[in-house]
Amino acid sequence: MSATGARTERVEGLLLIAVLLVVGGFAGAASFTHVKDWTMANSPAGTGEWFGWANAVISELLPMAAMLTIRQRRRSGRSIGYPMFLLVSAVLLSLSAQLAVAKPGLSGWLLSAVPALAFMGLSKLVLFTEPASTPPVLAPVMEPVSRVNDEPQQEAPRPIRPGLVPVPAQAFARQEATL
User: Fold this and answer.
1) pLDDT tens digits, residue range 137-164?
2) Containing structural domain, residue 154
3) Do 112 and 144 share a structural domain?
């Protein structure tokens, strides 16, 4: 990739993150308010306002933490089951709060859900976009250890031929992790 192409890609990435932050700020304000109002409407009399805000912060930041964890686990080849469960649960809770405080009817529900849906869509776009393919890592081709009289050979495996062959970086990283 040329220097100009790399610079353009970097600027586009920064702009995408800026859009996510702006949308996230407004969506967060709307969603936090809906969750706080729903919490307070369904809490015992005398419950402090802090509880409504605390519940909003917890339920609205959980999806972001889950998405970041999913991204990290995907990069390392680990299971994403539990963070995906948390993500789906948190999104359903947030949408439930938004729908619960909306004006009854399709337009009220839709308008109330727009901020959360837009933020989740943009978050997925930014956090789940696959990076450009990584260049292959060169790894030596190893000859299998031969057996003489059913005893393992004591010397280390040696390359079949001098030189290196291209191997995808992900496969090489997984191979090193198992050694």
Assistant:
1) 555 555 555 555 555 555 555 555 555 5
2) 137-178
3) no
Contact 27, 118 (CB under 8 A): yes
The total number of residues written for the chain in this structure: 179
In a domain, 132, yes or no: no
Residue 78 banded pLDDT, cuts 50, 70, 90? very high
Question: Residue-wise over 106-137: b if at least 16 C-beta within 10 A, else e?
Answer: eeebeebbebbeebbebbeebeeeeeeeeeeb
| Tokens at 104, concatenated | 């009854």
Q: Tell me, yes or no, whether 57 and 90 share the same domain.
A: yes
Residue that the structure tokens 């079949």 belong to: 160
Domain tally, the chain: 2
